[in-house]
Each structure stands twice: as structure tokens, then as C-alpha cells.
Specification:
Layout lengths: L10 H32 L2 H26 L4 H24 L5 H25 L10 H29 L2 H21 L14 H10 L1 H22 L1 H8 L4 H23 L7 H20 L4 H29 L5 H12 L2 H16 L1 H30 L8
């Protein structure tokens, strides 16, 4: 078990890990509160999708900028600036909540600001990670534990948010997030990242695109990430609908549902952290695509919370196995001077497909209801798993020379 957390032996990654845990917990508390407030204010599944779309589009558009900045500037400084902007946004939302001034326009604007900030932050954070892992053999473990910070917060945050909404009200959720950013900013300021020269080419994002064009394994990893993100978008967008209209619950029900998905994600992150090599990673990704599809189809028309919870655990675990395993493989494939831009493309594939999914599924749900949306995306996930299974032998052969062990 001690090897599961081996990358925490390093001071810098340990500090970064602690700061991330605190900050992400606050972020999830805020995110669930905003989701509930959106449905309370608008009463519309379409508006849930539209507001999610409004935050995800700037993230998609600005991720290339974030990747190029990460290959040219000091990555820690970029992260500090993005944390300050995010803290200021949370402060504004706390004031809006305190004055009971939420409206669709406020929700849209705040979503756009957070999306734009995330577009710069996420590829920078991905590229920054290996700068604070001084033992390169711990790199895969650090990526898995970084996923664990996100998913541990995803597990605890929704449950905490539901309780905070019930006991202390909406304002408290935003105040907690403001305070959590202080931990992230402090840890970023005191860590000592490795000095890595910036040798980015002048081709901008095209350097990363050209790399993907020439190297099929990396290209297929991003295709898989993008497709999976599209297929799981209903789980993120429509949980308030299931909590309120299908399961006849309140914010505490929403917290439990999202917490179940987070629990599965934590289990998957811990499992991946125990892995000491990349052997078998490709098969795990394909199998997880199948599991995601089956869970989505089974969830679609289920009217019982007790049945929904294990399905959400499976879906959460399978999704993280796909996303994090693809990240692990990419980090070991990509040259250092392209890391920021390729991780920007990874961010675009992961986060960037969510606005497409939110808008498409929101429009579809407006016409058909949410149940057919889950069934359709589940079938699509099964198709992804099948296509990847067919392609895997060829991708394995091409990737073998650049990986420590074959995936």
C-alpha cells in the first residue's frame, strides 16, 4: 500500500497534493451549489445544458492559448494568476448569493469566466506536474494521485455541498471556495519546481497537431478521450433532473448521487496508483469504455435511487480509468518541448467535448426527456470500446518504442 502513495515522498509534490485537495474540495462544493441554483432559478433542463455549454466553450477555445503559454512561460506563475482570478469569481458569487441576486445572466457570465480561467489553467497544470516530481520513475503514480485529488474532492464535495446547502445556505458554499483557494496559492508559492528550459517551437499549437498527425497512438488516445467525454456529459449535466424529478429528492439527493460517481472515481484512481508499469493499459481503456456504456444504458430508465448508486459508482470508475490512463500514456509519449501544447489538446478533448455534449444532450432532453439521452450515449460508448479493441494491436506496435513497457 505504501507504494500507492510513493510520489508523496517528495516534498514539492506532497505540498502540491495537499493544496489541490483543499482547493478542489471547495471547487466541487461551489460547482454542485451552482448546479442546484441553476435548476432552482430556471427550472429548465435546457438551461442546465446551456449554462454548462457557456462555461465549457471558452475552456475549449482558450486551452490552446494555455498550452502555448505553458511551453513559453513559468508554469507556476500562470497557475498562481489563474487561482487568483478564480478566487475573485467565487467572491463575487458569494456576494450575489448573499443578496439573493442570482439570475440566468449572472449564471451565464460566471460560467464563462470560470471556463476561460480553466482553459488557461488545465493544460498548464498537466504540463507542470512532472516539474514537481523529481524522481521520474514516480511520474505515473503522480498522475494517478493527481487524478485522486480531483476525484476525492468529487466524492466529498457534492456530499458536503448538499449538507452545506441544507444547513448553512448557498452563500456558505461560495465562501468556503474562496477560502480554499488560499491553500492552493500558498502551496504553489512555496514549492520548488525543477528548472526546465523552454524550447517551444514557433509553430504554436500546430506543433502539437503535427505530432498527433504523425503518431497514431497519441491521436487515438485523444479520440478516445473526446468520445468518452461526450458520452458521459449527461451524468454531469442532468443529475439535478434525476435528483428532483425522477427520484423526488432535494439537494441532499443530488449530493448523494454525485458522491456515488465520485466514489467510483476514487476507487479507480487508487487502483491506477498501484500500477507500477503501463502494461495492459490499452485493454483497460477499452474495457472501461464498455463498462461506461452499459452503466449509462442501465441508468437511463431506472426509477430507484438504490439501483442508481452502484451504476454511478461503475460509471465514475470506468470514466476515470479511460481519462487517467490516456493521460498516463500521453505523458510518457510526448517530448518535453511539446508537452504544454499536447496537453492543451488533451484538455480540449476531455473538457472541450463537454460543451458539445451539454448542448446536444440538453437540446435532445428538451424534446425527448433525459432517459433517451442516457440510452443513446451508452450505445455510443459501447461503439467506442469496440472500435478501440479492433485498433489496439496496431497502436500497441507503433507505441512500443517510446514507452517504458508496452500498453
Amino acid at each position: 500500500m505504501k507504494d500507492t502513495f510513493r510520489s508523496l515522498r517528495g516534498r514539492d509534490f506532497r505540498l502540491y497534493f495537499i493544496g489541490q485537495v483543499v482547493s478542489l474540495l471547495g471547487t466541487w462544493v461551489q460547482q454542485v451549489a451552482l448546479s442546484w441554483i441553476t435548476y432552482r432559478v430556471t427550472g429548465s433542463a435546457f438551461m442546465l445544458g446551456l449554462i454548462a455549454f457557456s462555461g465549457q466553450i471558452p475552456m475549449l477555445l482558450l486551452s490552446p492559448v494555455g498550452g502555448m503559454l505553458a511551453d513559453r512561460l513559468e508554469r507556476r506563475n500562470i497557475l498562481v494568476v489563474t487561482q487568483i482570478v478564480s478566487m475573485a469569481t467565487a467572491t463575487w458569487l458569494a456576494v450575489v448569493a448573499y443578496t439573493d441576486s442570482f439570475s440566468p445572466w449572472v449564471l451565464l457570465v460566471s460560467s464563462i469566466i470560470m471556463g476561460a480561467t480553466g482553459g488557461i489553467e488545465m493544460p498548464t497544470r498537466q504540463a507542470f506536474l512532472l516539474e514537481i516530481v523529481h524522481d521520474r520513475s514516480h511520474g505515473t503514480n503522480a498522475i494517478a494521485l493527481n487524478s485522486l485529488t480531483f476525484n476525492g474532492a468529487r466524492l466529498a464535495g457534492p456530499a458536503a455541498s448538499g449538507a452545506i446547502l441544507y444547513l448553512a445556505g448557498e452563500t456558505a458554499c461560495f465562501v468556503i471556495n474562496v477560502l480554499s483557494f488560499l491553500a492552493a496559492i500558498y502551496t504553489l508559492m512555496v514549492i520548488r519546481p525543477k528548472s526546465i528550459g523552454r524550447h517551444a517551437t514557433g509553430r504554436g499549437l500546430l506543433g502539437g497537431v503535427e505530432y498527433l498527425r504523425q503518431f497514431a497512438p497519441a491521436r487515438w488516445l485523444l479520440i478516445t478521450v473526446a468520445s468518452t467525454s461526450l458520452c458521459v456529459s449527461p451524468f454531469m449535466t442532468f443529475m439535478p433532473v434525476y435528483a428532483k424529478d425522477v427520484f423526488r429528492g432535494g439537494p441532499e439527493t443530488l449530493g448523494i448521487l454525485m458522491g456515488a460517481s465520485g466514489f467510483g472515481a476514487v476507487l479507480a484512481s487508487l487502483y491506477l496508483a498501484t500500477r507500477t508499469s503501463l502494461s495492459g493499459t490499452g485493454q483497460r481503456i477499452a474495457g472501461a469504455c464498455f463498462a461506461t456504456g452499459l452503466a449509462s444504458i442501465a441508468f437511463a430508465y431506472n426509477p430507484f435511487v438504490a439501483v442508481a448508486l452502484p451504476l454511478l459508482v461503475v460509471s465514475g470508475a470506468a470514466t476515470i480509468i479511460v481519462i487517467t490512463s490516456c493521460n498516463m500514456l500521453l505523458q510518457h509519449m510526448v517530448p518535453d518541448n511539446l508537452r504544454g501544447r499536447v496537453m492543451a489538446l488533451y484538455t480540449m478533448s476531455f473538457i472541450g467535448m463537454l460543451p458539445v455534449g451539454s448542448l446536444l444532450t440538453g437540446s435532445m432532453a428538451h424534446i425527448t426527456g433525459v432517459e433517451p439521452v442516457f440510452a443513446a450515449t451508452g450505445i455510443a460508448a459501447l461503439a467506442i470500446g469496440y472500435a478501440l479493441t479492433r485498433k489496439l494491436p496496431y497502436l500497441r506496435d507503433e507505441a512500443r518504442p517510446v514507452l517504458p513497457s508496452s500498453a
